Amino acid sequence: MGPTGDVFKALQIHPTRFCNLTCLHCYSSSGPDQREELSAPMLVDAITQASAEGYNDAAFSGGEPVLYGELRALLQHAKSLGMTTNLTSNGMLLEGKRLAMLEGVTDLLAISLDGVPESHNKMRNSPIAFQRMSANLPAVRDTGIPFGFIFTLTLTNLHELKWVTEFAMEQGAALLQIHPLEEVGRGMTQLVGQRPDEVEGAFAYLETVRLQASVGNKLAIRIDLIDREALRPQADRVYAGNCQILAEERPLAEMLSPLVIEQDGAVVPLQFGFSRRYQVGNLYESSLSEMAAYWKRNVFGDFQKLCQKVYTSEMGDDDLPIFNWYEAISRESHGRPRAKLPVLA
Amino acid sequence: METKVRGSALISEEMFGKSSEVSKAALKQLVAIARTNGVNLHGWWTHGKPAVDAVNGVMHVKPDVAGDIFRQLLTVENLPLKVEGFPIGIINPELIEIRFSTPGGG
User: What is the pTM of this model?
Assistant: First the structure.
């Protein structure tokens, strides 16, 4: 079934590294000086072929996706194929034409919010990031596009989550998603030691439960961490089960979700930065359909072994039950050992 | 980032009125309580990718089991808490926010 569940099969697209900000935690090291981007015709073809492989959700990230000139065309195309569409933005540019181009073609808009205004601005590396983003929220609401916030959890900011929850409620958000910081991209140098360890992850999980209970069904609060015990009987959720159907006979979306298209054309499993050893291919070298067929025949076996290795490793009893599977498997894909951080007082 | 204090330590301080260390064993137990009260495994997502199922009616924790979760927290060894409920008062006054405090505390 995979981590995104049995309903949504996610194609995540990073069309550009161009961004108006240089956030400290940016996993793709995007910024104003980064102009690498994929062509719209290439992405139209990839979305079409991904749809044929069973992907039904197109998610756009970046860089700042609203700075990608052909974003509306891509959203429209995905919608025409029956896909749900969503994008993640820093929110600072969601006004005027850039906001209008999302109307009618966007099912969910996720806006970054990394704590109280002072913390948000520090993380965004901009003294006006919160002010500009929050000033755009009334217009976002007026579009009627369901929107949510994405909060990056660090070792030191869990106490700000309650404020973020209240802010999200006040603004009429549908979703608050908590994503733990990983030391990748710019975060490797700018936020050393700020990755939440297993203790902080467990607290964050409980705080999520507490906050969800407090707000009821007014706001969906999600955390990108998983409870080992919930996962233990469901190895297929992390592709560690043994499927009896031949790989070549299955749509790619059943074997891999999220599927990620990076700005250099690489198509990789699960998350940005995954080892190229397991990549599906590169859009500059072949079509998504061709690379999918090759991957099923020649790479899926190794990928499944990787998933089984991480599953077995993470099911030990001596750790706290909450962990970041995405980080664990991405790290293992690069052959790096599990991270154990010193515990602060 | 300037502060080096754990976010969870600051929450703990706010809740308990003082810095309070929660053992790994207690943390495990707390997670287990949440687990047995309906915190289920749905889709979970990653880097910059919003959980689309969240706006399509799939909830991570059922609000109606919140009371059970927090009643059971009282039984966690070495975590002598009492639970209070009070209206959150912002969006829906009927919603109850549950907070912890130490016995005899405010």
Answer: 0.85
